[in-house]
Amino acid sequence: MINVTSLKLIGFLLLIVMFTLSAEEQLNNAPLLSDTKPAVQSSLLNNDEPLPVNARILSLLELSEKSPGQAEQLLPKVDDISHSFNAAEKYLMLIIRANIIRESHEQHKAINWLKKALSLEDKIATMQLIQPQFNQIHTKLANCYAQIGQYELAYQQKNNYLDKYRDYRKFLREQRLAKLNAKYDTDLKVKANELLKTEHELQHLQLKETEKEVAIQQRNIGILLITAIIFIALLIRQLKINTALKQLTERDNLTQLLNRQSCFEQGELLSEAALKYQHDLSVILLDIDFFERINQAYGCVIGDELINAISQLGKESIRPRDIFARIAGEEFAVILPQTNHEQAKAIAERFREKVQQYRYTYQEESLQITISIGVASLSQTEQNFDALVNAADEALMAAKNTGRNQVCSYIKQD
């Protein structure tokens, strides 16, 4: 026979199990964000205390995201008290300046402000640096680098942001778990005392023990399945991000044509194949005539639209097998596999005529644009792609120097 003391002990242990499971369930359903004060949060991550930040700086940071122009007007008022700023406040002020300068598309200046901010990180607590107001600096740098075509640096800054974001999420989880543990430790003691006063509940718990064990096993299996699903979802998301970043490194951001690096990689492969199988290979280089004047007269937005127009006209002029790329601001390249010099000249002339016939209307004014083209073939050069591009560039310079809006062929010097 089981005596009363044994029944009490068994009931006490079962109740501890019940409340432990209840605490785990509430932990899984708890919100991820924490309302703990920053000073308390910091102590769990490292021994450094976060630096205080003036509320005016936080308001100005938010305004610079939504309305950089208004933020620029208010900036001098905050600068008046900048002599008393600590490292964290200086850090945010540099981000604000970068937000304002990016509005005028001066990406290089914005990058310089953001780099200055990063130089202050060793003076700021790690916990503070992973907060959203601070870790956003890496996404801003990534966007700036992407705008100027430095995609490897953009990819690196995206990774830096993800590292800090993971640290921040990990800290919030630890914070939440600590709060729940403290809360439910107290609850367990209260319930244990109540259990000692109610002997009839012990008998009921003893009868339900087997059912609860089965329920625990089933729930553990469910948790494992949910964890596996979340892991697979995160893996798929990471693969999509990697694919998008690869696309950024291969394509021109404005026209979605191949960029310079991808163009040269394709050119090397095609030139090697042409030499191996004794095929013809030609290259066309073209430049928009007087493009700087257009930018100065009508602005960069109109210039970008004209570059896109040239891109579309080029796609209509070349064949599906040809490689079309934007290799510089207003300079394009076309690689023509299995194409001799005369055929390449004909394609180039068709392209030039299409552009000459095209009209762009701006504020009821019809703008005509023209292009200069240089053509070279592999048989004329030193049998490698770099030499072929240089030859086409010489022909392009000849087209510019002799009047523009024409196609010139490379003439090999004896």
TrEMBL record:
It comes from the Bacteria. The keyword Transferase applies. Signal peptide: none annotated. It is an enzyme of class 2 (transferase). Keywords: Nucleotidyltransferase, Transferase. Residues 279-412 form the GGDEF domain. It catalyses: 2 GTP = 3',3'-c-di-GMP + 2 diphosphate. InterPro entries: Diguanylate_Cyclase, GGDEF_dom, Nucleotide_cyclase, Rev_trsase/Diguanyl_cyclase, TPR-like_helical_dom_sf. This is diguanylate cyclase. It comes from Thalassotalea castellviae.
